[in-house]
Design goal:
With 124 residues, this protein is mostly beta strands. The protein contains no helices and eleven strands. The N and C termini lie far apart (39 Å).
């Protein structure tokens, strides 16, 4: 299990897009289940999406209902990186987004290693 690092957050207008990255320094990261979570001001932390490498080019992904159809999770094992593509962003998507990784982890947790978070702000 490896400490992940998030990047790619920022300010975007409603309807816009952002791509977040979750990277690790070691290839063992590719064998870990990786999840994205977010916490909005005054709200509880919530599950966003997760991905599990099944081998080769095959992955299994799961999404929260609130982001299904708008967000897409993927990974590039050559770069030890997991991405979260966020489209059609809404103000309610504003939150700190966290990346988490774990071995022998179910899609929604528990996770062992967490990033520091990256701020996503959706505002006009």
């Amino acid at each position: 299990q490896v400490q992940p690092v998030e990047s790619g957050g920022g300010l975007v207008q409603p309807g816009g897009s952002l791509r977040l990255s979750c990277a690790a320094s070691e290839s063992t990261f590719n064998r870990e289940t990786v999840g994205w979570f977010r916490q909005a001001p005054g709200k509880e932390r919530e599950f966003v999406a997760a991905i599990k490498w099944l081998g080769g080019l095959s992955n299994y992904a799961e999404y929260a209902d609130t982001v299904k159809g708008r967000f897409s999770i993927s990974r590039d094992n050559s770069k030890n990186t997991v991405y979260l593509q966020m489209n059609s962003l809404k103000p309610e998507d504003t939150a700190i987004y966290y990346c988490a990784a774990g071995v022998q982890t179910t899609m929604r947790g528990p996770y062992n290693f967490w990033g520091q978070g990256t701020q996503v702000t959706v505002s006009s």
